[in-house]
Backbone:
């Protein structure tokens, strides 16, 4: 099966002047923001460094592989640095801000794509506990700190460059792309050419009703793997496309598993019944617990993750296992928690199980979270 690496072999020798910027280019640059550019890419908008130059600096760090989130991030960086299509693109305005106190993880980079467009790439959730907790906070907070930062960042970039802007992100980065584009000024919205959300959650139900979101809706496009779990969360009203992934379940969130053909993705007609099932289960759970209970539950879960991390045991990697394994780990950690927290976790897991049981009959090929269905 062909992946983005095959695309780079097919189209890598063609500049964006010869072969126009496309969806796969946007996906690659959305993933590019996950790379650790501290002390490499300038923080200011008026200074820049090319991808090729950034790679030369990056590979001098003997411990660079330890700083990567996915193993494929390095070969991607290496390929882009030698690739005619990408190597001379200019990087600037790199931000990487993690604040445990405010539970904020925000990172972004701006890329001059050399076709009279500026590309703003928001990083998704990294491997830090702070980043994952902020993701969960989205389920019960109207706005999280990273969303505010993303709006301010996009406003600043759009005001500095007198060029059309493409905005993108993968995972939480996709959510930030949608949020920032929805709530910047109308002047900035007019500069936005397109918003790419790659398997990122939607917006809180309150935010999605805002006029400013409706005003940018036609420019937003979401891309989901067929068994999406992360991307189906929260509310979506924008157009979407379903991409074939050669992996299963949560592993499909990895963009390196998405299938491409020449200069576009391989598309499917719909998400799988498993994706619909998980969406319905989570929705039922959220409808039956109030904001305080959700907040307490996630605080308790992250207490457990923090204990694992302190003891050099699995923490966030738990999220990549099956739900049953994750539940087993949570229950095995009860000895670290007080009685009230134990009771709360038991009740919420019972509710999740009940929701799952009630939704068994929903395992049919349909989509419940998007307003538009594509046949």
Residues:
């Amino acid at each position: 099966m062909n992946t983005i690496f095959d695309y780079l072999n097919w189209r890598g020798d063609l500049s964006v002047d010869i072969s126009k910027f496309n969806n796969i280019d946007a996906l690659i640059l959305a993933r590019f923001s996950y790379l650790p550019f501290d002390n490499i890419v300038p923080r200011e908008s008026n200074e820049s460094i090319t991808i090729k130059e950034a790679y030369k600096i990056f590979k001098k760090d003997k411990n660079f592989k330890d700083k990567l989130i996915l193993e494929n991030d390095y070969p991607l960086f290496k390929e882009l640095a030698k690739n005619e299509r990408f190597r001379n693109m200019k990087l600037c305005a790199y931000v990487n801000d993690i604040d445990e106190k405010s539970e904020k993880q925000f990172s972004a980079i701006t890329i001059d794509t050399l076709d009279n467009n500026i590309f703003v790439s928001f990083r998704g959730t990294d491997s830090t506990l702070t980043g994952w907790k902020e993701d969960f906070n989205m389920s019960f907070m109207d706005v999280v700190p990273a969303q505010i930062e993303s709006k301010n960042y996009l406003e600043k970039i759009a005001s500095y460059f007198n060029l059309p802007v493409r905005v993108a992100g993968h995972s939480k980065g996709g959510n930030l792309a949608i949020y920032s584009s929805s709530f910047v000024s109308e002047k900035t919205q007019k500069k936005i050419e397109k918003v790419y959300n790659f398997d990122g959650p939607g917006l809180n139900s309150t935010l999605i009703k805002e006029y400013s979101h409706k005003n940018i809706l036609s420019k937003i496009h979401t891309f989901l793997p067929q068994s999406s779990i992360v991307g189906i969360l929260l509310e979506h009203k924008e157009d979407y496309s379903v991409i074939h992934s050669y992996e299963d379940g949560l592993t499909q969130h990895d963009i390196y598993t998405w299938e491409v053909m020449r200069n576009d993705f391989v598309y499917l007609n719909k998400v799988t019944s498993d994706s619909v099932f998980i969406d319905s289960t989570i929705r039922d759970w959220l409808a039956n617990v109030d904001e305080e209970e959700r907040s307490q539950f996630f605080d308790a879960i992250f207490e457990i993750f923090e204990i694992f991390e302190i003891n050099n045991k699995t923490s966030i990697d738990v999220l990549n296992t099956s739900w049953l394994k994750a539940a087993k780990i949570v229950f095995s950690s009860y000895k670290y928690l007080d009685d009230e927290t134990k009771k709360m976790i038991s009740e919420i897991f019972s509710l999740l199980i009940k929701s799952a049981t009630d939704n068994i009959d929903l395992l049919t090929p349909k989509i419940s979270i998007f307003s538009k269905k594509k046949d």
In short: The chain is about 40% helix and 15% strand. The first helix runs from residue 4 to 11. Residues 276-361 form one domain. The chain has two domains: 4-268, 276-361.
